Amino acid sequence: MESLRKAAEDGDAKAQCDLGLRYETGKDVAVDQAESVKWYRKAAEQGNAEAQCNLGVHYSVGMGIEKDMAEAVRWLRKSADQGFAEGQLYLGTCYDLGDGVKKDRVEAAKWYQKAVDQGNEIAKIHLDLLRPNIEEAK
């Protein structure tokens, strides 16, 4: 744990993301969502796609930070644009529900499909549920 903390403090984005996850889940440390957000933000600002996704999720539910769907979408888009499947899934969900963005099922399907192409089974379920709505709208 100390070597992870040292690497994170020295600016290693992967270590920062990993430390954020530990604070989020309580692995080897007490759960502290605000501390989790702090480390995710440091990694996200360096371009770490996983941290960007995790920070976006924290913003979307107000976990350790005030809920802010515009910020959630901003970070999820950064993650999704880098090809991170979970970021694509969550961004698709934002479009599917119209949460933080204008509801757009075609755009949702696009992001779900990108995640599915990487083997994300949850995105496949969402896409399968969404398809009849898209076909109906045509």
Q: Would you kindly provide a written description of the structure presented here, covering whatever features stand out?
A:
The protein has 138 residues and is mostly helical. 74% of the residues lie in helices and 0% in strands. It is built from eight helices and no strands. The longest helix is centred in the C-terminal third of the chain and has 17 residues, at 121-137. The model has no long low-confidence stretch (mean pLDDT 95).
Could you provide a short overview of the structure?
This protein is mostly helical. It is 74% helix and 0% strand. Helix 1 packs across helix 2 and helix 2 (13-25) packs antiparallel against helix 3 (33-45).
Name a few traits of the molecule.
mainly alpha, 138 residues, Serine Threonine Protein Phosphatase 5, Tetratricopeptide repeat
Overall spatial form: elongated
**Strand percent estimate:** under 5%
Overall structural class, as computed from helix and strand content, comes to: mainly alpha
Might you state the CATH topology name of the largest domain? Serine Threonine Protein Phosphatase 5, Tetratricopeptide repeat
